[in-house]
């Protein structure tokens, strides 16, 4: 396995490619493994419109924690208007509505536009009885053995970073901050080895946020920084893929981060700040693996 030289030119290329793909328009993000309820896709409002920005992260996390299969989220009043009923004892999820309003400027007397953010609560369709059938998600997919084979060199690279990787049949890829380990579904359940290692790279970048590594969790610890951390992980994984001769799917990465950028009004500087942290994470993993490999050789 050969590794491309890391540097500002490669990292800038990755960042530019992702921005270019976002500006060209992207399809919804699709998970690269089989199994689980991820086919529900992006969270939707009762009218079918997709949620955007930080709301996507909030609702994805809550859906994963509770095993919700439906992608639809409704307010209590919306459910009642459809002759449906939220089940007793169900807990709502917080979302944020962004908008603008006009006020008269006290100095010039001219109308100026001001942004606002207002919170409200929603329930997943799986918490509501009596909705039309299309609101409810299909039965979860079973993980399928697609025969995807591992790459020994890449397995050795990620093992040499010193970050623990656990594999079970649970169809989720995630980094567990409290216990400091990365969880991956079996590689055989992935559509391609490239998809497996790209997903693993994403979670390994998350792992660099640990206090014993780059300590991003202390520097970016507010709820709003969840979006920033996801940007770091996806851009960092693309950078790592380039360095490891994997083929990064820039359209897939763009689909993943597009909503986060919209939540910050398409602030281009934001993605470049995230790219800077992503570069540090990619460099950390490359260096940690190289140092471990050299120690073993010695």
TrEMBL record:
Annotated ranges, domain Polyvalent protein metallopeptidase: 154-276
Keywords of this entry: Nucleotidyltransferase, Plasmid, Transferase
Keyword match Transferase: yes
EC number: 2.7.7.-
Major enzyme class: transferase
Alphabetized InterPro entries for the sequence: Antirestriction_ArdC, ArdC_N, MPTase-PolyVal
Domain N-terminal span(s) in chain numbering: 9-123
Entry GO MF terms: nucleotidyltransferase activity; single-stranded DNA binding
Protein known as: DNA primase TraC
């Amino acid at each position: 396995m050969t590794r491309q030289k890391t540097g500002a030119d490669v990292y800038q290329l990755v960042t530019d490619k992702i921005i270019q793909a976002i500006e060209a328009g992207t399809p919804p993000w699709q998970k690269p493994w089989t199994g689980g309820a991820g086919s529900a896709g992006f969270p939707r409002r009762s009218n079918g419109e997709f949620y955007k920005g930080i709301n996507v992260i909030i609702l994805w996390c809550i859906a994963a924690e509770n095993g919700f299969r439906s992608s639809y989220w409704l307010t209590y009043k919306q459910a009642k208007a459809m002759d449906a009923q939220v089940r007793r004892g169900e807990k709502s999820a917080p979302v944020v509505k962004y908008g603008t309003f006009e006020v008269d400027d006290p100095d010039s007397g001219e109308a100026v536009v001001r942004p606002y953010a207002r919170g409200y609560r929603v329930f997943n369709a799986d918490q509501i009885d009596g909705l039309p059938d299309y609101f409810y998600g299909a039965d979860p997919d079973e993980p399928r053995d697609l025969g995807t084979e591992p790459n020994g060199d890449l397995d050795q690279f990620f093992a040499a970073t010193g970050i623990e990787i656990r594999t079970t049949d649970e169809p989720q890829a995630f980094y567990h901050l409290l216990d400091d380990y990365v969880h991956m579904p079996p590689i055989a359940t992935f559509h391609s080895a490239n998809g497996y290692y790209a997903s693993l790279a994403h979670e390994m970048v998350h792992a660099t946020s640990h206090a014993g590594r780059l300590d991003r969790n202390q520097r970016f610890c507010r709820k709003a920084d969840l979006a920033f951390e996801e940007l770091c992980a996806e851009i960092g994984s693309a950078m790592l893929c380039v360095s490891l001769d994997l083929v990064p799917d820039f359209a897939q990465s763009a689909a993943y981060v597009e909503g986060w950028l919209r939540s910050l009004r398409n602030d281009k500087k934001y993605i470049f700040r995230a790219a800077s942290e992503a570069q540090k994470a990619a460099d950390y993993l490359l260096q940690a693996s190289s140092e471990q490999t050299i120690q073993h050789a010695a």
